[in-house]
Every structure is written in structure tokens, then in C-alpha cells.
Amino acid sequence: MTSTLRAEVGTATRSVKIVALLCAAGAASLVASAGAGHAARGSSVPNANHEVGMHGDPAAAAPYWRQQHSPDCGEMAVADVVGQITGHEPDEQQITALAGSTPSTAGPGPIWNLPANTDIRDLPVLLAHYRIKADNIQTSINALEQDLTEKRRVIVLLNAETIWNRPGKRNAANHFVVVTGIDPKAGVVHLNDSGVMNGRDEQVPIATFEQAWAPNHNSAIVTK
User: Fold this and answer.
1) Is 154 among the domain residues?
2) DSSP 37
3) In this structure, how many other beta carbons lie within 10 angstroms of the beta carbon of residue 8?
4) Is residue 139 part of a domain?
5) What is the CATH number of the domain that holds 177?
6) How many folded domains does the chain comprise?
7) How far is CA 223 from CA 78, 114, 153, 194, in A?
8) Nearest partner of 177 among 112, 104, 81, judged by Cα
């Protein structure tokens, strides 16, 4: 995303309230297999089989997926992004300990303070601890494509029930995931989703993603 477009988006959306949200309720039932399917850490290098038209590199990002074992999807998304950028991914205990000892900028108490919710405004604070700069914005699918093409990393806040196609309220944003690729030709968005056992390079139709992303005004954390 160009700096001009980023400024325009920020100006147009300053009046929209960014809601503090918790990882999807009931996700614990989907993360029962603790430690299952963990891959070795890899390096964020271009994929030799990179598809024409793919924005981002899901294959390079996939090794940094980890399954969550607590309602800490925001923290796990940050850890994923840190791993992609630095090659050194904090584990779940490390990232929640950091969030639990870092004051929130959105309210009283620390960033991770169960049963309170993790606020999207605090994710750039966690990333800054690892010297990664990021913006908290409302944006669009086309802008995300450009961000991914320019090798920025993206965390979005969306509705888990829509993404997972399970019963429940679909009008609230309640789950953080990392967007690792968008393939307009295939009509698919690639995600690293810590909330489900098959969340490594989870693939959902673009239309489903946009429906799930809409409840909190297309909120995203985009690295600089």
C-alpha cells in the first residue's frame, strides 16, 4: 500500500471505533491436540513454485504457524509474524508472558489479562517489542494484495464462525489470523489460523473471507 493510500484510509476511518475482541469463544474444543503438527522453523525466502498472480508467499509463511492452547489468538498471530520477519518465533508461553507484563494502550491492565479481551490496538505494541513497526488500520482486499506483494505481513480481525463454517453469531469480529497470501485467480485467501488444528495455510474463498472480515470494518495490522 502506498503511503498516500495508507494516509487516506487512516483519515477516512479515524472516527470508526476499533473494538477490543477476544479469540473466538469455544475455540478450546478445536485446539485439543496440543503441540500437534508443529513444523520446523524455516526461512522467509521466495517460493520457487510461486504461482503467477499470487500475492504473498503462503509456503514461506506456513512453517511459522502454531496452534493456540489458550484464548490468545492475537498473541499467536504476533508470534507468527515475528517468526516470518526475524526467523526467531517466540513460543506461546513467551508471547503471552510478554503480553501479560506489558501495559495495554487501550485500557487498564496488561495487554493479555484473562478474561479481558485482547485489543487490536495493542498488537503493534507487541510487534514493537521485536523492533517491528506496524499500523492499525481499516483497509480493503485490494490494498492487502499490494501489501503482501510488497512483503508486508498482515494480521486481520474477523469472525471465526464464518471462516470455520460452524454455528454461532456471525456479526461480530472475534478472532485474529495472519493473512499469508491472496490468489485472485483461484479466488482464495491463505491464512495461518492458530484456532484450528488444520490452520496451517488454511484456505478460504475470497467471498467468505470478506464476509468474515466485515464486522469490525476490515480491521488489520500491517507491518511497515
Assistant:
1) yes
2) T
3) 12
4) yes
5) 3.90.70.10
6) 1
7) 11, 26, 5, 19
8) 81
| 84 contacts 64 by C-beta, under 8 angstroms | yes
| Residue 35 falls inside a structural domain | no
Rounded (to 5) percent helix, strand, coil in the chain: 35, 20, 45
β-bridge mates for residue 110, sequence order: 103
- Here the contacts of 5-13 (C-beta below 8 Å, separation 24 or greater) are 5/143, 6/135, 6/137, 9/137, 9/138, 9/139, 9/140, 9/143, 10/135, 10/137, 12/138, 13/137, 13/138, 13/217
Q: How many CA atoms lie within 13 A of 100 on its CB side?
A: 11
Bridge pairing between strands 154-158 and 118-119: unpaired
- Above pLDDT 70, what percent of the chain? 77
For residue 115, the 8-state DSSP code is T
Residue 62 lies in a domain: yes
Residue 18 sits in which domain range?
3-30+50-223
pTM of the model: 0.80
Residue whose entry in the numeric block shows the C-alpha cell 485482547: 118
CA distance 125 to 65: 21
> Picking from 12-21, 56-65, 146-155, 197-206, which range would have the lowest pLDDT averaged per residue?
12-21
Helix or strand or coil: residue 143? helix
Q: Where are the alpha helices (DSSP H) in the chain?
A: 3-13, 58-61, 73-86, 92-101, 123-129, 141-149, 160-164, 206-213
Rounded mean pLDDT of 75-98? 98
138 DSSP β-pair partners = 219
Query: pLDDT value at position 52?
Result: 57
